[in-house]
Amino acid sequence: MASRIRYFDIAKGIAMICVVLGHSVLMVVPMSEAARLIYVFCFSFHMPLFFILSGYFMHPDHPFAWRKESHELLFTYVLTAAAVVVLHALLALALHHDAAHVTGTWFVAALYGSGADVSNALIPMSRSIGAIWFLLALFWAHLLVHIAYRLPATPLWVIGFFALGYVSSRYVWLPLSVQAGLTSALFVYLGCLAKRFNVMGLLRRRPYLWIVAVIPWGLAMWKFSSFGLATNAFGNTPALSIIGSVGGTACIVGISMAIDRWAAPIGKALSFVGRYTLAIFCAHLLENDVLPWVTIMSKTQPAIGYQLEPFFIFAVKCVLIAVIAVVLYRIPAINSVFFPTLLKDKKTAALKEQTA
């Protein structure tokens, strides 16, 4: 089995922390200036980074791995969404709420697969499933890039997919994050191109080229209005937001390379987070969707204050995510879904035994 590149895991670890921190900041109203700066920083690059790095390790010239992609992305989505529905049903029963209504609401949210609330869905929705929209969108993006790779003028097809997803989402938001997958295909394909043309090697040999990444990222943060791949919201300057997010991804990878070289203990911790982002995504979704955060904040914010509340929420979320991830890790059969490396390690061990 090919060895992992640690600085890529470090970059994914940084992005995963930014996902949780960004969501923590968004929960608190009003938003302090410090919280706003954190929000801009996190949302300027975190989700594009996951799609770009996913593309970096893709093999679009190979046949599409239906079984692997379905197991790691679709099946993981189904299990996590089902857990959200069941946990809400049990919580509603325990609190003597209308369990049928609560269960139905979350069941519809799980079936629709929207990452955030939208006003133009095909059917009325009072809930969105949240962070695991990423799994659905990544499946579609991988499939679309594989299709485009087999067609003439591949870049034009990828741009066409992006345009179709972006324009159509202005009129109607379709189920299963299909349009998020259409736009995200662009980022996946950029990751494929970065690998093909050895962009990281070029940046290592010519460090002055980092300015090409830093400038658009800085401009995108300066002009930031919104950026949400979950609903194809690219703010008032979509082109700058997209180019800036690519530059931000390159910068975070560069920072990760420096951490790997000069701050090994920090790099080891971040790479651990980055290696298990699938389980962390799903654990974050569970705590974010199921816990009564509104009630929790109503009791803690008067004592903490709105300026410190996002950091308190972030700390609590980190603890809860760690606990949920450990529980998932210890459930036989289920653990290989949320921790795909376990399955790979078992296959590698079995292969070694056969060849010994």
Key traits:
mainly alpha; 356 residues; 17 helices; single chain
In short:
This protein is mainly alpha-helical and 356 residues long. 74% of the residues lie in helices and 0% in strands. It contains 17 helices and no strands.
Helical content class? over 70%
Outline the biggest β-sheet. none
Number of domains: 1
Model regions low in confidence, pLDDT < 50 over at least 5 residues: none
Strand content: under 5%
Evaluate the radius of gyration.
20 Å
What integer is the average pLDDT? 93
Order of helices and strands: HHHHHHHHHHHHHHHHH
The general outline is globular
Tally the beta strands: 0
Instruction: Note the gap between the termini.
Output: 16 Å
Summing up helix and strand content along with how strands pair, one would put the structural category as: mainly alpha
Number of helices: 17
Task: Show the helix and strand layout.
Elements: H1 6-26, H2 33-43, H3 46-56, H4 66-94, H5 99-112, H6 133-149, H7 154-169, H8 178-196, H9 199-205, H10 210-222, H11 238-262, H12 264-275, H13 277-290, H14 293-304, H15 309-329, H16 335-338, H17 340-355
